[in-house]
Description:
By secondary structure, the protein is an all-alpha fold. The chain is built from 10 helices and no strands. Helix content is 77%, strand content 0%.
Amino acid sequence: MTATAALLAFTLAAAILTVTPGMDSALVLRTAAVEGGRRAFMAGLGICAGCLVWGAIAAFGLGSLLLVSTLAYDALRICAALYLFYLGVTLLWGSLKRGQPAAGPQAPRAPAAAGPAGWFARGCLTNVLNPKVGVFYITFLPQFIPAGADVLRFSLLLAAIHALLGVLWFALLVAATRPLARWLSRPAVMRGLDRMTGAVFIAFGLKLALEKR
């Protein structure tokens, strides 16, 4: 397989994986709907940064530790599960507080849970703490490295392509919520989104915690 063919094949495969619904898309959509497009896009950038981190780890060979060390994998898995529980409970608790009656005639909109930098960190941690993402990079990227290519540079290039596709996809998701911004800003809708997304995070965390390698 030539370098051009490898890049094209990886781009197609990565694009399919990127648009597949999952926790990352749920996080960006919820943030765009409840806290605005800027924070949502920062969360998406954080997720893509997490992909670059795992791509670099896989390129330098450090990620192979997850394949051979059950202890390392389980430690990262538990950390990821706890973090997802934290995010899920935070969203559920916030939706309950938002549902309480206001003292005045109008209920004030709840303050943002975090600024743009905070959402970038959340998105990044969501990927960096997920060992399944690490195992994916370790096992998936080598299949698209042609013979004779510089493994380190080509791996980083593939990770960069995946991250770029993610940026484009999350930008599209954020843009798609703009026509519905007025409807999505209704308190009842925001509570429902927080509860749904919080439940998704807790479910992913529970699945990760109970997973047997």
